[in-house]
Amino acid sequence: MTSPVLHAEGLTKRYGRRLALSDCTLSVPPGRVVGLVGPNGAGKTTLLQLAVGMLTPTAGTIRVVGGRPASGAAQLARVGFVAQDAPTYAGLSIKDHLRFAARTNRRWDQRMAEDRVAALGLDPGQRVGRLSGGQRAQIALTLAIAKCPELLVLDEPVAALDPMARREFLRALAAYTAENRTSVIHSSHLVSDLERVCDYLVVLVASRVRLAGDVGELLAGHHRLTGTRRDAADLPAGVQVVEANHTACQSTFVVRGDTPVNDPSLTVEPLSLEDLVLAYMSQAVTSSRPDLEATR
């Protein structure tokens, strides 16, 4: 059996009385592009910083590509990380960044880095502080992937970019993952961006994992049911209600179930990825029902 690229059990991070991450149990298969979604303050950045070793757990365990995060030089070499602000050194040139990275990363691929800079149409002698936000994000991505990691961790690196810069960043990411089959965990609150590149989904709300699994399987297992107003208890057997909305005459449910719904009084519709994410996010804020727990 192939080992998970990230495996957490009971992972918890607390700052004083505040829980940033609570009892997170999650196993992510290798070779996938994972979309990590959730509202602001859900714990996404905390989970990713635990994964790359920038934070240590208050309780529980986490292993990434088979090892403890940041446990040594060999482990650090196996993980690439791009933070939300795409950190670079404003006073250094692009060439300086590549030279520094070559000296600090044992698996560095100089040819890959130079080819990416050339493809971006950038002058290697230009200072990074004079680049646009999108260009700096592309340089940060170049530094992360040219170290040839087994896992690439992206913490909302396109959140502050304009739509064109976001599209170019995601295009570069898709091309890289298709060619190299590197595992990726990509945090974002922009579900439309994740739809372009991700095949595995993790929904994190209020410091807890609410849903995790293959995108295709999750979409196939969820539907929207619409019909005359009724209680959830009156729905066909075998479905779990994720979200319910009612008007005076009509009820709409987002449900999960493995068996077809054959009730002529109900209209059954598929969900988009955004529909699915919003259903879990909105319901999980106010409910802790067992049917909202994550798929393990």
TrEMBL record:
InterPro entries: AAA+_ATPase (IPR003593), ABC_transporter-like_ATP-bd (IPR003439), P-loop_NTPase (IPR027417). It comes from the Bacteria. Belongs to the ABC transporter superfamily. Keywords: ATP-binding, Nucleotide-binding, Transport. It comes from Plantactinospora sonchi. It holds the Pfam family ABC_tran. The keyword Methyltransferase does not apply. CDD domains: ABC_DR_subfamily_A. One of its GO terms (molecular function) is ATP binding. This is ABC transporter ATP-binding protein. Residues 6-231 form the ABC transporter domain.
